[in-house]
Design brief:
Belongs to the ribF family. The chain is an alpha/beta fold. The chain folds into 2 domains: about 150 residues, HUPs (Rossmann fold); about 130 residues, Elongation Factor Tu (Ef-tu), domain 3 (Beta Barrel). It is about 35% helix and about 25% strand. Helix 5 packs across helix 6.
Length: about 325
């Protein structure tokens, strides 16, 4: 799959293509429907498929300080899109100047002049251009002038757990913020992941017999609510069942919020400086301050037992 940053990265001889445009944060199941249809339509037409996305998130440029928590960094989104069969991903730097492009100018500058769109596939709520003035009706109207078709893909509605809401990044972020990582996983189609470099912490876990990888997460990452979770820690290509702690470590009067993962039953791991990923499977309990260190150790041992069982059960079912 080709990865481009900016319009100037697009090959000069790029021919016609099927395009879909959006933030696509998380590449959740709703996004997968749209992107999958773009890939399918491209194959029907015998042309490549292109996903156009933005960096930073448009809201941060239009309303500074409003950057939403991110469900996945750009390189992860591109990997997920590649798995769906996408031929190229174009990341457009979203600047104040770019945000002022009218919907018509956006269509000409991006879809017509550079990507030579043969078809554009979008969700029903797609908006674009200055002040988000463009919609799918305008996109289709312009398609009659510039010889591209527009297809709208309806997003499936989640079941009772989501209150009948469509798959959405906003709902996924809310569930993660509430600690409902299983609900978020239902929308994403996989466990929610955070990633970053392992840095040195207070090393109290090591002293207590549960050495943890203290993960310095990427900026704007969507971090689950404080608590203990079952999941996996992946380092140097190895995926290990883990007990994950998110929070400020109230037992030791901590103030900084951290993500720490204990690789269950692993001894002697040296992870400092490595880029790792942490996948959240299930919420185990909230963050607590115990009366004694002994009662903390009993709780931690119980956490590890539950996390071992939860991850083993998940892996057995997949």
């Amino acid at each position: 799959m080709q990865r481009w940053r900016g319009l100037e990265d697009i090959p000069q001889d790029w021919g016609r293509s099927v395009v879909t445009i959006g933030s696509y944060d998380g590449v959740h199941r709703g996004h997968q429907l749209i992107i999958g249809r773009a890939v399918q339509r491209a194959r029907e037409l015998g042309v490549p498929s292109v996903v156009v996305t933005f960096d930073p998130h448009p809201s941060e440029v239009v309303r500074p300080g409003s950057h939403p928590p991110l469900l996945a960094p750009h390189h992860r989104r591109a990997d997920l899109m590649a798995e769906l069969g996408v031929d190229a991903v174009l990341v457009l730097p979203f600047t104040a100047e770019f945000s002022k492009l009218s919907p018509a100018d956006f269509i000409v500058k991006v879809l017509v002049d550079k990507l030579h769109a043969r078809a554009v596939i979008e969700g029903p709520n797609f908006r674009f251009g200055h002040r988000a003035a463009g919609n799918v009706s305008f996109l289709a109207e312009m398609g009659r002038t510039y010889d591209y078709e527009v297809e709208v893909v309806d997003l499936y509605v989640r079941g009772e757990a989501g209150g009948g809401e469509p798959f959405s990044s906003t709902l996924t972020r809310r569930l993660i913020a509430e600690g409902d990582v299983e609900g978020a996983s239902e929308i994403l189609g996989r466990p929610h992941r955070v990633e970053g470099i392992v840095v040195r912490g207070a090393q109290r876990g090591r002293e207590l017999g549960f050495p943890t990888a203290n993960v310095e997460t990427l900026p704007h990452t969507a971090i689950p609510a404080d608590g203990v979770y079952a999941g996996w820690l992946t380092a140097a290509g190895e995926r290990m069942p883990a007990a994950i702690s998110v929070g400020t470590n109230p037992q030791f009067d901590g103030t900084e919020r951290t993500v720490e993962a204990y690789a269950i039953d692993r001894v002697g791991l040296e992870l400092y400086g490595l880029h790792v990923t942490v996948d959240f499977l299930a919420y185990v309990r909230g963050q607590e301050k115990f009366d004694t260190i002994d009662s903390l150790l009993v709780a931690m041992a119980d956490d590890v037992k539950k996390c071992r069982e939860l991850t083993a059960s998940y892996d057995a079912g997949h």
